[in-house]
Amino acid sequence: MVSNQAQLLLPLKKHIEEATFPMTNEEFEPILGHFDVIRRKKHQFVVQEHDQVRNEFWVLKGCLKAYFVDGSGKEHIIQFAQEEWWITDYEAFLKQSQASIFIECIEDCELLTISLENREKLCQEQHRMALFWANKTKFGFLALQKRILSLLKNNAKERYEEFLRLYPSLLQRVPKKMIASFLGVSRETLSRLE
Description:
The protein is an alpha+beta fold. It contains ten helices and eight strands.
């Protein structure tokens, strides 16, 4: 029988099944034991530059942004994360080193966290979870490559249209200034594109 807490976390079960294969609630219950739930308020950080990054985060509720600040103090958004998306500073997480980016809540957030140790333990214990993270890594790499190519080859209008097509729900949740930063354009340029 799945506990009440587990019942609330069934979107994770569905997420894992979509990348692997169906499982029973009894198979899912031990997976949950490797995760913790945290809540953060709007404007709180889950990672700050130079933090030791111990966890990967899966969004149950809310929206976050990952960004770095250049030498002149300008913020460059590299990723948004909304419900059912993963986020962390992956280099720092996988190397268990210090973060080079910030991850901040744009809205109040409820997140599942998993440590690298628990992630590796799950992969050793369950073939399904090794397959899950292999698939998530593969698709994450493809998305990153697509984003880099878009930044390099598309003009501002094309990048904005692609953003609207890929992430229509973010348009209502994320301030225009942040969308402009994500697209690599000024707020004024974004206004002209709308």
